[in-house]
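Standup, Tuesday
Yesterday: got the pipeline producing structure tokens again.
Today: sanity-check two examples.
Blockers: none.

Example 1:
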Amino acid sequence: MESVRYFVKGLFRGIPETEKITEQREELERHINDRLADYMDSGIPEKEAFSRVVESLGNLDELIDVITGEWVKIYLKKRDWFMMAGGIVYGTLYMVAVGIWFYFHAVGIYAVYIAVLGWLGFIVPALIGYIKYRNQPLATAVVPADISSSVRLSVFGWAGISLACWIVNILLINSGTFLSVVWAWMPTFGILTWPLMTAAADWMTKNLKVLFPDAE
């Protein structure tokens, strides 16, 4: 229908016309026409049928963002759980290293308590993420397709905090206190989870069909 064609063209106003955009626009137009025909075949007047179809499309700005590739629809809780699972692996290795360091440099066998408590900081969020995923395994969300700027920010933030810790460590290395050892590696590798998880989120979002072939 001409009204549908004009409506869809209006949605894409201001968006550069490419082969992909043309295909997506024509597909959306066919979808609307099919839904419109179904409603009208059931006896619903054209104007009301058109309103129902538009309403069923949901947030049109969000829809266009998905079509143009600026945003993507993913199984959010599944992605978050996968990230948390990776965090458990990293956190386990990290806390083992921390426990060994405290064993030889500070508290001896009591380092086990420090390591276990620190390890819970990785386990508890992961368990919460897993429970949320199991409760709503198919929960979807529309997220930015490219979060590389957040990845860069996390890397700069991690580098800045790490540098500050190493400077303080060097200044205290001959202080004669219990800080007269190399300890700055702990916050360096601890905060590394920030850029690692942000990069993982970016990678999984960009490679969504590889990880989640059934994603809509």
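Example 2:
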Amino acid sequence: MADITLISGSTLGSAEYVAEHLAEKLEDAGFSSEMLHGPMIDEVPTEGIWLVISSTHGAGDIPDNLLPLYEALLEQKPDLSKVHFGAIGIGSREYDTFCGAIDKLEAALKACGAKQVGETLRINVLEHEIPEDPAEIWLGSWHLLLRDL
């Protein structure tokens, strides 16, 4: 099993690019990782460490490839009490639903018993043309928090 499971949801690919970049950085830091782009509920581990990365589209909507997982979390309410997670949202501050998708995912994970590690990173694409840059900086402090688990 991977040390960290990266779960990404993206409409245009930005969250996938961030996940792939962070997987590389995690490997450099000595972690093993598994990438899941838009997984179904039966594809995600029910224990361990997740790093959830999601863009937001529309009016704070979850990307289509992550919607089945989100809906399964709400409907099935799996026991995720053995999951610790970090969260990264990507969106535009031009919208009042800025990073609304990651907010919804974070709430659904917590409702299933998952425990958040660190603060959620919300990347404003108007400020950061390359979202991998702030994500990499955030990851540097986030993975240090994992030592306390």
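Quick observation on example 2: The radius of gyration is 14 Å. The first helix runs from residue 14 to 28.
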